[in-house]
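queue> pop job 88
queue> type: inverse folding (structure -> sequence)
queue> payload:
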């Protein structure tokens, strides 16, 4: 009796009804329960081996939206029996033109000078397709197969697959039903405790072996939480956050960074330019100083020696690098010297999607502004970043190239599964960049780190696409 005493109220309602095999709709009708409750009860009973179920698929037909309007031949014939009709008027009925051809072939109408008239046989006409159409939804009988094929070909009915679940009671289930299902209390309420009515009641036993549904509590998206932690760590290291627009001008994204307008260095960015966007509004003083740096250089530099195109500089594109935020900061009246700044920027570049590349990505970048800064300061800062954010001791700094820094370096860290991964690039901003923007004789350490790859390190992810996954099953299992 222990198994019988553990049955849920839904199970106790459904089980006695299974003297013969029955479908879910039949059980729902007899028990008065919704079909979803019957299905749930059958699942529980099947796990307890009191019931077995068999699922079968059956093909049946149902009327389409056109079919629900009726048979076109019937509609046309009813009109012409009342009085002759013009072909152009009958053509307004959906399927009317085809119906005229069918009725004419069957000798039920005649066509004379654009008018359609009914023949004497028209009033006695019958349509097998019409009677079948009225039966929908159904499984056509053997004699109706030809009519069904005709209706389906004309788009008046559609074929659908219907799943039927039939339940069968097992010997163990029959035994429990024969012994009788005593009435049981399913809850111990406060009222029972107060008035003592719990005494003598037959309470349902708890089944500790049954599978309870998992509860998934709310939590932050794993990568979003990681980005928040990175932001907090930078702030705790004394960095001040800066920002800039996603739709950026060519000026701040490349020109202000001393990247020549004609140079192949811009090819590595492959930006997404905004069609029909108005030209950006750039401060004329900053534009003039950057233009002179490109054309003539600063303090001994010869510049790029070409005619700088101001309109070209004002074109707008999706930001290709977070360094645009650094350029804006250096030109800002809020710049502090010495100062440490960082930005978490969403960037966009054309790229082939794979396990480590996406066309849109997050970038953490920043600058340290002060006098007498050197490459040794830069290398020490990068190694500290790798240890703090990638949690790895295996790092290396190698020479690199970036058009706006000299010298330039790249930072690599070793992933346990993917091997050496590039985390970012860095260097000292060139004077041709710093002087027009900051208008001060200072050095600027600049760095940009692919924070998406840092996220892969910390979250144990091998495919960068999983950082932005919408798969609930994956997100529920992902560590935070």
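queue> result:
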């Amino acid at each position: 009796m222990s198994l019988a005493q553990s049955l849920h109220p839904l199970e106790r309602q459904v089980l006695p009804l299974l003297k013969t095999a029955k479908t879910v709709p039949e059980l729902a009708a007899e028990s008065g329960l919704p079909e979803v409750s019957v299905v749930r009860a059958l699942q529980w009973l099947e796990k307890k081996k009191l019931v077995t179920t068999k699922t079968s698929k059956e093909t049946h037909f149902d009327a389409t939206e056109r079919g629900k309007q009726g048979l076109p031949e019937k509609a046309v014939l009813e009109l012409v029996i009342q009085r002759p009709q013009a072909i152009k008027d009958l053509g307004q009925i959906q399927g009317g033109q085809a119906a005229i051809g069918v009725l004419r072939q069957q000798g039920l109408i005649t066509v004379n000078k654009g008018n359609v008239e009914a023949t004497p046989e028209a009033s006695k006409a019958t349509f097998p397709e019409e009677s079948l159409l009225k039966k929908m939804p159904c499984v056509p009988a053997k004699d109706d197969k030809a009519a069904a094929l005709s209706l389906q070909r004309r788009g008046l009915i559609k074929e659908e697959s219907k799943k039927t679940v039939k339940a069968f009671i097992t010997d163990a289930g029959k035994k429990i039903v024969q012994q009788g299902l005593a009435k049981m209390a399913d809850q111990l309420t406060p009222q029972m405790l107060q008035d003592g009515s719990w005494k003598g009641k037959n309470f349902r036993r708890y089944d500790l072996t049954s599978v309870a549904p998992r509860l998934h509590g709310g939590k932050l998206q794993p990568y979003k939480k990681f980005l928040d932690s990175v932001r907090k760590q930078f702030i705790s290291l004394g960095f001040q956050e800066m920002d800039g627009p996603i739709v950026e001008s060519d000026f701040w994204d490349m020109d202000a960074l001393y990247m020549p307008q004609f140079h192949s260095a811009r090819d590595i960015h492959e930006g997404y330019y905004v069609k029909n966007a108005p030209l950006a509004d750039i401060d004329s003083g900053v534009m003039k100083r950057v233009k002179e740096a490109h054309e003539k250089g600063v303090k001994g530099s010869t510049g790029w020696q070409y005619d700088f195109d101001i309109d070209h500089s004002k074109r707008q594109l999706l930001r290709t690098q977070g360094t645009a935020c650094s350029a804006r900061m250096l030109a800002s009246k809020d710049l502090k010297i010495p100062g440490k700044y960082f930005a978490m920027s969403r960037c966009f570049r054309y790229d082939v999607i794979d396990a480590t590349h996406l066309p849109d990505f997050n970038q953490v970048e920043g600058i340290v502004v002060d006098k007498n800064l050197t490459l040794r300061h830069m290398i020490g800062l990068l190694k500290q970043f790798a240890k703090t954010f990638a949690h790895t001791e295996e790092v290396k700094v190698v020479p690199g190239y970036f058009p706006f820094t000299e010298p330039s370096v790249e930072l690599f860290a070793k992933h346990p599964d993917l091997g050496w991964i590039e985390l970012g690039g860095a260097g000292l901003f060139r004077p041709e960049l710093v002087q027009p923007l900051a208008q001060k004789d200072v050095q600027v350490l600049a760095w940009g780190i692919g924070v998406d790859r840092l996220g892969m390190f910390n979250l144990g992810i091998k495919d960068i696409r999983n950082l932005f996954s919408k798969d609930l099953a994956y997100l529920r299992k992902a560590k935070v």
